[in-house]
Amino acid sequence: MKRRNLLWYSLLFTAGCTTGINSTSNNSEQLPITTPKNLKFAVTDISGIENLQRDFGSFKTILEEILGLKIEFFPVKNPIAAAPALLSREVDIVFAGPSEYLILNARAKAIPIIAIERISYHSIIVVPANSQIKLLSQLKGKTIAMRKIGSTSGHIAPTKILIDAGLNPQTDFKTVMLDDKGVQALKKGEVDAWATASDRYKNILESEGLSEKNFSIIFTSKLLPNDVFVASNQLPSSFIEDMRSRMINNQDKLIQSLLTAKANQKYKGSKLITANDTDYNMIREVYQKIGQGNFL
């Protein structure tokens, strides 16, 4: 299912590869001797310097103060492009979504620095209020609108929900990727259900001029895996450990700096926590189930 899209990203990665002890958070303390002179920072789902500056400019400034290092933005053309950039040391740290983290970990051996835990990050499956569908099992043979290939909350997690309900993602239902227009397709009866993120749900309805009373949420997932900051494995391990410590100790400043951008309001109430690779096994499982295990 959707093999061509994932293989295309894999080809993009291949092409890109052919190109080119915890310390205190007090900035007066010296960083490890092996500290790099500067860092290049990318965000997997943001392209263009202007967009990076708009959404992460304040964060970059605070992180520079915390680390005592100059940080430069490194724009990537697509989420997969961060992997070859890490391998070639064109970029040092990357902020990635859960699915992108797995690609960076598998293809570039990226090292997780710290994760950002969102308090209301769930996947939900929605049907019209007057729908006869009340149970996930009733979605067999139906068409479901999802967001986009690889989206944790809008593709991977909803697929896991349906797998756990006993449905085969390759034979038991049809998936159409409609981004945030899935709600309009649901309203028009073009699809039977719509999968989205709980923290996007109200915003999407508001932007589309729709009311919650017209819809029914038939399932809400458990809290989803976190977005994560990763580092190049070519950075000294002592430096990565020190950076992790400083980010945790200064997390209030870092979270507040993210919230200065409209696009980052989803991180309101979030906290920085240790990133554990096993937290992302759910996503690995789904890729296996949809026949894309080799992608990771």
Automatic annotation (TrEMBL):
InterPro entries associated with the record: PhnD
- So which domain of life are we looking at? Bacteria
- Pfam families found in the cross-reference section: Phosphonate-bd
Return the PROSITE patterns for the record.
PROKAR_LIPOPROTEIN
* Keyword set, alphabetical order: Signal
Q: Which PANTHER family match?
A: ALIPHATIC SULFONATES-BINDING PROTEIN-RELATED, SOLUTE-BINDING PROTEIN FAMILY 3_N-TERMINAL DOMAIN-CONTAINING PROTEIN
NCBIfam families, alphabetically? 3A0109s03R
* Family designation: Belongs to the phosphate/phosphite/phosphonate binding protein family.
The molecule here is called Phosphate/phosphite/phosphonate ABC transporter substrate-binding protein
Species per Swiss-Prot/TrEMBL record: Nostoc punctiforme FACHB-252
Supply the gene name: phnD
